[in-house]
Amino acid sequence: MRVLLNIIWFLLAGLWLALAYALAALICFILIITIPFGIASLRIGMFALWPFGRTVVRRADAGAASTIGNVLWLLLCGWWLALGHLISGVLLCLTIIGIPLALADFKLIPVSLLPFGREIVSVEQARAMGLTPSVEVPR
User: Fold this and answer.
1) 2-7 long-range contacts, CB within 8 A, separation 24+
2) Distance (Å, rounded) from C-alpha 124 to C-alpha 97?
3) How many C-beta neighbours within 10 Å does residue 61 have?
4) pLDDT score of 66
5) Is-contact 53 2, C-beta < 8 A?
6) Between 20 and 30 A from 17 (CA), which of 1, 38, 87, 88?
7) pLDDT block averages, 10 residues each, the chain of length 139
8) Strand (E) positions, 11-83?
């Protein structure tokens, strides 16, 4: 089921969202001082490309640097990437098949707004850490 949802996701939303994250990463790499933001953008872009079967968890070692990075990210890239998720989620809600994909899209908004201090892991790893996955798809 995950593979089927990921394929449909890739065709309807994932590719376009991943390209938006790649554009954000390119802008961050050009500005040099924002290279860590570019790396975060690529990391989230890979998650947005194939999201089912993976989830986002908070890192225990996140501190003040993550908070400062999140504020800068929100101002530079986060708001328009989250807007992209919101728009694609609303468009996916227009079809019955797109509703589960839209819900996954809406659950990507928090990580697109505040990516620092979070880690993308498989659902199985999240369960092994004793955490409840935020997006789970039946097997």
Assistant:
1) 2/52, 2/53, 2/137, 2/139, 5/52, 5/100, 5/101, 5/104, 5/137, 6/50, 6/51, 6/52, 6/53
2) 26
3) 8
4) 85
5) yes
6) 1
7) 87 90 92 90 90 84 85 88 92 90 88 87 83 55
8) 54-58
Place of tokens 């590719």: 15
- pLDDT at residue 71, rounded to an integer: 92
The whole-number pLDDT of residue 133 equals 61
What is the distance between the alpha carbons of residues 36 and 28, in angstroms, rounded to a whole number? 8
CA distances from 1 to 12, 100, 134 (A): 17, 12, 17
Contacts with 126 (C-beta within 8 Å, 6 or more apart), sequence order: 55, 57, 132, 133
Straight-line distance from the first to the last Cα atom of the chain, in angstroms, rounded to the nearest whole number:
6
Beta bridge partners of 118: 58
Distance of CA 76 to the CA centre of its chain: 16
Q: Which of 39, 38, 40, 16 is nearest to 27 (CA)?
A: 38
Q: Which residues of 96-126 are buried (b: 16+ CB within 10 A; e: fewer)?
A: eebebbbebbbbbbebbbbbbbbbbbebeeb
